[in-house]
Amino acid sequence: MRRPAPSIPFSNARPVEYDHSDGGAITYANGRAYRRETSRHDPDNTITPDEQKVLRQHQLEAAQDRQARSDANLAAALRLGEALRVLKGEG
Predict the structure, then answer these.
(1) Widest CA span in the chain
(2) CA terminus-to-terminus distance, the chain
(3) 29 to each of 1, 2, 34, how far by Cα in Å?
(4) Which of 9, 5, 7 is nearest to 20 (CA)?
(5) What residue spans of the chain are helical by DSSP H?
(6) Whole-model pTM?
(7) Which residues contact 82 (CB under 8 A, 6 or more apart)?
(8) Contact indicator for 35, 25 with CB cutoff of 8 Å
(9) pLDDT in tens, 23-53
(10) How far apart are CA 63 and CA 69, in angstroms?
C-alpha cells in the first residue's frame, strides 16, 4: 500500500501526485517520485535545425546592427572632436 505524500506544514501547498501508469518514465525512491532525464524530451518545445539556423541569422543581424551603431557613434565622436578643435583654434 502506498503512503500519501507528506504535506508541508503551515502552507497551502498540496503534494504532487504522479500518474503511476507511466512507470517507465518515473523512478520511485524513499516515497518520492523522480522523472527520468530521457523522458523530458518534448517534441513540441524542441528547436529544430531550421529554427536554429533562423536564430543564428537573427543573432548575426543583431551583431551587425550593434557594429553599425558603434561605427556611427565613433564617426560622430570624431566629427565632434574635429569641430571642437576648430572652435579652440587648434586646427
Answers:
(1) 94
(2) 92
(3) 15, 12, 8
(4) 5
(5) 49-88
(6) 0.48
(7) 91
(8) yes
(9) 567 777 787 777 766 656 667 777 889 999 9
(10) 10
